[in-house]
């Protein structure tokens, strides 16, 4: 998997352009409402889900968190994948989703930064993953972010290396999860929205043991 636990920069945009084009072809209406330079997130999540799915022996059970207006979710539905969506706009929020059903792959594109309790968000994903299941997330990243920083409308926070490397791993390691591949979120902000400069980061981890949960 390319760009796992990295920033999605212009090099990544070039790498995932073919996947973005697939999304435009299959989900033209949703993609027409997206911001072009932000589509690298959708392309990354879809490309990663497909790669993991095709590497598994059995058919994957997939969950999209934040499925409303998510073109990757729509693509997988149209292509006949075993994918389920959760979104407070259409059914449940993640925390209220029953935890007795487990998933091989859980993906969520640009949702974490909108969630008030992101540690609970990560914990819920861990509880829903099967052993050897993989979580594929993206989020707004800003190395200069502090609690007093201004952020785009509807965004609760942006993420720093401290959040991604230290704070949130304290949650997922309790459930036997660890990073899939190495981490490197270094880089200067290069995406602008509502007058704010920041990056998109990928966040991918695997559940190696359920610790009896």
Helix content: 25-40%
**CATH level 1 class label:** Alpha Beta
Largest beta-sheet details: 7 strands, mixed
Task: Give the CATH superfamily.
Answer: Vaccinia Virus protein VP39
* CATH-assigned fold name: Rossmann fold
List the main descriptive attributes of the protein structure presented here.
Rossmann fold, seven-stranded mixed β-sheet, 7 strands, 32% helix
Can you put this structure into words, describing what you see?
This protein is an alpha/beta fold. The protein has one domain: 3-Layer(aba) Sandwich (Rossmann fold), CATH 3.40.50.150. The chain has eight helices and seven strands. It has helices at 10-15, 17-26, 28-32, 39-55, 71-78, 118-128, 161-167, 169-172; strands at 62-65, 83-86, 103-108, 129-141, 177-179, 191-193, 196-207. Strands 1, 2, 3, 4, 5, 6 and 7 form a seven-stranded mixed beta sheet that branches. Helix 5 links the parallel strand 1 and strand 2. Helix 2 packs across helix 4 and helix 4 packs parallel to helix 5. It is globular and about 45 Å long. 40% of the residues are buried.
